[in-house]
Amino acid sequence: MITKFYLDINYHKYSSERSLYFLLKDNEKYLDGKIEHDQTGEWFHKSFRQVDVTGSSNVDLSIWYLLQNAPLFWKILNGELDECYNDLKK
Question: Are 60 and 49 contacting, i.e. CB atoms less than 8 angstroms apart?
Fold first, then answer.
């Protein structure tokens, strides 16, 4: 999921989504598959406000905020860009 996100932000040049990518990538060890196992992303998004995901409230809040403004992330999570991702891999 995070790899797909990286390929798409570089292709589409979304700066806020690029910031989100780097925060997610830097904190990937705390995510432990949570993105892939949450089909809608609802729990994943809420978790950054309700529980201490990364160990830093500042990082959690930043991720939560950036997720609110990340249409590309949500399209990837919902599988809407799978065809685009396959094209980018070629």
Answer: yes
| Residue 22: pLDDT over 70 | yes
CB 24 within 8 A of CB 17: no
Residue 4 near residue 73, CB atoms below 8 Å? no
Task: Return the HEC string of the chain.
Answer: CHHHHHHHHHHHCCHHHHHHHHHHHHCHHHHCCHHHHCCCCHHHHHHHHHCCCCCCHHHHHHHHHHHHCCHHHHHHHCCCCHHHHHHHHC
Output the pTM of the full model: 0.69
